[in-house]
Amino acid sequence: MIRPRLVTRLVIVAAVTLFGAGACAFDPRPEQVGPTRPDLAGAAGGATGASAPAGPGQASGPAPSSTAPAPARPRPSTPAPKATATPTRTAKPPAGCPLGDRQRDVETWLARLGGFGAVTVDGRQSAADCAAIKKFQLRYGIRPADGRAGPTTADVARRLASTDTASCGAGSGVTFCVNLTLQTVWAMRGGTVLQAPTVTRTGMAGYATATGWYSVNARNVKEWSNPYEVWLPYWQHFTQGMGFHETTTYLHDKSIGSHGCVNLLPADARRFWSLGAIGTRVHVFGRRPGT
Question: Where do the catalytic residues lie (predicted)?
Fold first, then answer.
């Protein structure tokens, strides 16, 4: 016969074997959690655990969690890309290229002239604008050639872009055309432009360059000026001691002017020399401002 105390111990051992040491499950650590079980999805919707009695339809076995739902194992994910603002163009000029007070004007004239690179007419300095302005300044001897759109650069660009080559009325032969009003000069043969308009500086007040039709009647690669004691490279005389020659001073200093001659940049003086000859026609028209 089995004693009552022994029977009680056997019942307790059987219960532990069948149901475990209790209805509470351990709160798993993230690294202990395997793939999320479908039957545990949405556990946050209601509390379960040791204090929650099994309701109808619930298994009386171990509860899936304690008072808080078991955290799901974090899945590796690709970091979300950082939001970046769309770059916008500002008026701040590129490093080493200052913004001039005539930026939009220069952009407008250079776009009309063409040949100096892409420019955007918006009044804002860009690397492309800077390169085009520097190229223009170097071509026409503007100092400093730093890409800054200042008054001299704007003035030169405006004058060149405003020059109408047909206004010269050149005939069939080579003609040197001088527009005193715009202070530009170019060469033509009939309706063909041999030398595009470039800058010049003619006679100042009291020494205005004579207007009219003339012809080159004397030439010398290096002429000496007796009254002014200075060399005149690539000299081509057309009337009254006046002629084309390379400038010996900064061409864009308007305060000094010439004594009636047509001053040219070095490269332009050589170009006109190569195009000219004794008998080349010269047409001077307009009036230099201030004379």
Answer: 245, 261
